[in-house]
Fold these 2 entries.
Entry 1:
Amino acid sequence: MTNPSPLDDPDYAQFAWTRYWRLMRWMTAFTLLVTAAVLVSFWMKYGWVSVHFYIATAGAIVASIMLTAALMGLVFLSSGTGHDESIDDPFKDEADR
């Protein structure tokens, strides 16, 4: 039988997800700031290269930082709420040997 997850409690789940989305808002602001700084530095060093270069660079920066933030945020959410400990590990007895 599986143990109940702390995220099954609606109040606790709302608190945890609110904290996750607050982290994502901060990371969005940070991502936009970093993207703007990188694009300005490219423009100052190389001048106008191509609109496609700047679009691709901005897209790559935003996608990589936001994907990393989303996945790490979910790891922190799962671990910090005790959701990871609520699973039933069928191999626990084998690991103790």
Entry 2:
Amino acid sequence: MPVHPENTVMTFAALNPWAVLVAAASAFALGGLWYGPLFLKPWARATGVDTSAPAPHRGRTFAVAFVLSLVAAVAMAVALPAGVDAPHGAGLGALIGLLFVATSFGINYAFSSRPLLLWLIDAGYHVVQFTLYGAILGAWH
């Protein structure tokens, strides 16, 4: 079967570092909204986190989160087909977020007897995160 150039995946050499950085940063902007004004109270209740108590090692937590967001953005950029545009990238990102990330969280949450609401909040965040990654990376291809 012949390989069509429009169906090939991107290589590391072809990555747009600015697109990857913006995609990774978008996870922080989304997280600030998602785990802030949108879902902080139900998320805190579901996890048992006391939001009034100071969080230890916040700088380290954010550094690790950014590095992992960067790794995920790079992986997404490599996984997207060459020549993908923003709408198709967003669609692929939504599928990856829903069918890989959300389902994996669902398995873990089922075995650890975590509340359905917590899964909806956390999995929903990652579906939107990967949708953003796909849209941003697709727009900059």
